[in-house]
Design goal:
mainly alpha; two-stranded antiparallel ribbon
Length: 612
């Protein structure tokens, strides 16, 4: 933000006709290239200038998402503190602790063992100590990067604090209770008042499309099965980061820079880029794997000791999250929806009576409880027996801890005898949170096959963690072989699903909410025809764009949608009225769960969505 720049008037020709608003990549190949900087520059004003709108709006959202300047500053400092603690503490454990003496002592000799070495002899290093030094170098580099990031992000956060206070009238305390839609509305007003953009008007949709430029492409890739398990691909966090980087490279090099003009068209160029990424991942994978292991041990081991049942808790896989996420759905809105869906999914899974599992678990608890009871009775008589009596080389205190852990784990396999079997209601609540309802699930919520399908997406936490660990080592293979084999499909996808929006630049076509070109609505029951794109090759599966549109309107109630988008609102109103009429004439008793109007609309859309 600068205050000494003079106002500059910029005149750009912008097609105002709706039919000329978007231009597909196929059409762009035969037309002149646009100004490379046009979609990424801001506007000069007397008291405000923005050079990069993508970067500016991304920082605007990060400032809101992380809770303001103080939270950002303290969070970055504590990340540095944590990294420093990991380096110092692990170095102490490796070089100062006498592990050979600790692990080889017997019970009667342990009191005499000195856990720390008298001196650290760095000239006589073991293999593991030498390996740790190599890893420690990587950790130190990571710490230096965190310190560098701290100064960069602190400066950016201070500038955003100035913008929020001066132009939006919001301090950090007020921001804690603000909705993102309200912040966006204030930003749109400020942009219009101070001419923030030289390339067109700014509204809530253009702000969100800039923030989610890469994420929208990834959502579309999952929706169109480019990154599907059917293609022998397992989408994990590690692969997700690489695909986002690849999308960023394809957008900037392929669409903006004349030197990389053929990047998004040339399959061989893409394969070469994938192999480079695979090599980089292979080099950094040992450091990432070790740091992830250390971070997990420090974070969760103490929690598991207090609550072993967390091992049986479930969470959505990375693939499931990207299946559920909708176009232009910012992270905190999606996080809230995901948290609500966790409880709904757990409740649905518990609906099914697993008689055999319950019988085995109860028997295990009974036997384990018998052993634990004897140990507890002995400890009441003389607690020193827990320490000095050994069974199979371990004292009774150790066995009591193991028995307690096994009993708590077995208890989570016992189904609740008072659970009311109502899978249809449980599935309805789940669909209202996820907006995901495949055709094979409809009217089949009571089947174990549907439960098995859901469990592929909603897996045990410890299993997903092992998958993430394995993915760090497998990702180089997936990049160099699996994704390379799909390079032609990725190139074609980027060509088909990219449009140039005046004032915004190249974005995913399905994130534009252009229902005339990319819509997927059927004819209404009343016979009135709504806008469709039945012959268009570019459209989302399961009406994801239509559901995303409804969600976006709920998040941004002041956003003025294009006129042609009103067709989807009218269609959903007719669907809601027909559903209400059908339910009013039904003889079934009223349900105990009544969703509000918006979630009911999305659930209706999820239930009725089919391939057109």
């Amino acid at each position: 933000l600068h205050s000494d720049k003079p106002k500059t008037e910029v005149h750009l020709s912008c097609p105002m006709d709706r039919g000329e608003r978007y231009q597909s990549m196929k059409d762009r190949e035969a037309s002149p290239e646009p100004d490379p900087e046009a979609a990424m520059l801001g506007d000069f004003h007397d008291d405000m200038v923005v050079d990069n709108l993508d970067d500016f709006f991304s920082k605007l959202y990060v400032y809101f998402y992380e809770g303001g300047f103080t939270c950002i500053l303290v969070g970055r400092i504590l990340r540095i503190v944590e990294a420093t603690f990991v380096i110092c503490f692990t170095s102490f454990l490796v070089f100062a602790v006498d592990w050979s003496a600790l692990l080889s002592c017997h019970q009667e000799d342990c009191e005499k063992v000195k856990p720390l070495k008298n001196s650290m002899q760095l000239h006589h290093l073991s293999f593991w100590q030498s390996l740790y030094i190599v890893l420690d170098i990587g950790f130190v580099i990571y710490l230096v990067l965190l310190i560098w990031e701290f100064f960069i992000k602190s400066k950016e956060a201070w500038e955003m604090r100035y913008f929020y206070r001066k132009y939006l009238g919001l301090d950090d305390r007020t921001l804690q209770t603000m909705q993102w839609g309200d912040v966006c509305a204030k930003t749109v007003e400020a942009a219009a008042r101070h001419n923030i953009s030289r390339v067109g008007n700014v509204d809530q949709l253009t702000i969100t499309m800039r923030i989610m430029r890469k994420d929208n492409y990834l959502i579309a890739m999952v929706n169109k099965d480019i990154l599907s398990p059917n293609n022998n691909l397992t989408l994990t966090k590690s692969l997700e980061w690489n695909v986002k980087f690849l999308i960023s490279q394809m957008i900037t090099k392929g669409f903006y820079n004349s030197e990389g003009e053929d990047f998004y068209r040339n399959v061989e160029s893409l394969k070469k880029e994938l192999r480079k990424l695979a090599l980089i991942n292979l080099l950094v994978s040992p450091f990432v794997l070790c740091y992830l292991l250390i971070d997990t041990i420090f974070t969760y081991v103490a929690q598991l000791k207090e609550n072993p049942g967390k091992l049986n808790m479930r969470r959505w896989t990375c693939m499931a999250l990207w299946k559920f996420r909708e176009f232009n759905e910012v992270q905190h809105v999606f996080d809230r929806r995901t948290q609500q869906s966790n409880e709904a999914a757990t409740n649905y899974v518990k609906q099914f009576p697993l008689a055999l599992q319950t019988i085995v678990a109860k028997t295990a608890i009974f036997i384990l409880g018998g052993f634990a009871a004897i140990i507890i009775i002995l400890s009441i008589r003389n607690d020193s027996l827990l320490i000095f009596i050994n069974v199979f080389g371990q004292n009774l205190l150790w066995w009591l801890g193991i028995l307690s852990l096994c009993m708590l784990t077995a208890m989570h396999f016992v189904t609740d005898p008072h659970q009311v079997f109502d899978p249809n209601t449980a599935m309805a609540k789940l669909v209202q949170c996820t907006h995901y309802h495949p055709s094979r699930w409809r009217n089949n919520a009571h089947l174990f096959d549907v439960r098995a399908d859901l469990l592929k997406l909603f897996q045990l936490r410890w299993w997903t963690f092992l998958q993430e660990l394995a993915s760090i080592l497998i990702t180089p293979f997936q990049l160099s072989y699996r994704l390379t084999a799909r390079a032609e499909d990725i190139v074609q996808f980027m060509k088909d699903y990219t449009v140039d929006v005046p004032g915004t630049g190249y974005v995913c076509a399905l994130s534009t909410f252009d229902f005339e070109k990319f819509g997927n609505l059927p004819k209404s029951n009343a016979g009135a025809t709504v806008h469709t794109a039945l012959n268009a090759p570019v459209k989302a599966s399961d009406r994801l764009m239509e559901k995303a549109f409804m969600s976006f309107q709920a998040t941004h109630p002041t956003w003025v949608a294009p006129e042609e988008a009103q067709s989807i609102v009218d269609w959903m109103e007719r669907k809601k009225q027909s559903s209400s009429a059908a339910s009013s004439t039904a003889t079934t008793p009223p349900q105990t769960y009544q969703p509000h109007m918006f979630t009911s609309t999305l659930s209706t859309m999820s239930t009725s969505s089919t391939s057109v």
